[in-house]
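User: Please predict the structure of the protein below. I'd like the answer in structure-token form so I can feed it into my own downstream comparison script.

Assistant: Understood. Taking the following sequence of 399 residues as input:
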Amino acid sequence: MVPASARNARPAAMGPMSSVAILIVSAGRGERFGGGLPKQYRLLAGQPVLRRTIQALSGIANGLIHVVVNPDHLENYNTATAGLELPEPVLGGATRQESVRYGLESLTAMSPDFVLIHDAARPLISHALIARILSALEGGASAAIPMVAVADTLRRQAADGSWSLVPRDGVWRAQTPQGFHFAEILNAHRQFKAVPVTDDMALAEAASLTITRVDGEESNMKITTQDDLVIAERLLAGGFEFRTGSGFDVHRFKEGDHVWLCGVRIAHSHALEGHSDADAGLHALTDAILGAIGAGDIGQHFPPTDDRWRNASSDRFLAHAMSLLRAAGGQFVHGDVTLICERPKIGPHREAMRTRMAEILGVSIGRISVKATTTEGLGFTGRREGLAAESLVTVKMPI
């Protein structure tokens, strides 16, 4: 079994008018966990459980995350989420059901098409599971619930101490996030607020919504006890894979007196032509990172037809790719950039380039390599019509 938070398939593309909000329910006191600090604020591999849950859900297409918290735990919440860009938390109620309703009401101004309601104590949620939920909602389901078939033999004990077998055929364990059309689940919460339920699926049933089961994941466990926390840490420790991404970029020379390469301004007899600052080195490295995480290419994120990026500094592109990598739970391991040109000479600027790229990425300079080569006078670079750059990166990603 591998950590679900670490499976990094991107969510299914939503329709052009679709929007999704994510409601994380973190108002519980965690009494079953035992002893003092609620479970959502306990450390899981060095970070609070709630923070890991938020990070696992970040980067969902068009997503907005709202967190519902216990009013008595605001200090814990602020500590756990320090540095994360989130709306103000929603204050929860006396029950989970009430807390969810308050959270849904807080989303009415946004009025998203879909809402995913998730337990804060499930930090190992995967993007692949979310993709299945969103796909079902896009396909017409009013409710999409991840479920896992019961595999263990079930026994019920009577008051007299005797045991009976509970058939497990057709018995499923429901998980979160549970996905709904926002207006429908909000109406269900309002209509049946006096009917106590244990999850939002029960309200969907009460409202006669169409419920679709999607495959859940064993690793999408809910941390309820100390043992669960230990198991989750073991999953996180071993659930990584290494990926390689490649990037390539070309720009022609034009009239000018300098070029930008790998974030460094270099005096030269010509400039490079491009919509942005035409920094081929940063463009190639950006594409390599995007490729490693399956996030398309630089043109999708920064279209050359968009005037916002005219003459833009390419460090913004690289920083954006790095933010997507981090949002997906990944780590930058190493980047190698090769510049292909007759002129300018790269050697005198190599260390400045490494330093600048390490600065943009927020990594040590030892993780960045810059090389240069020529084509021995052959081709467009040999004729000094332009230059090219290629890049390879290695990243460490959750599985």
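That's the full token string. The chain has a mean pLDDT of 90.
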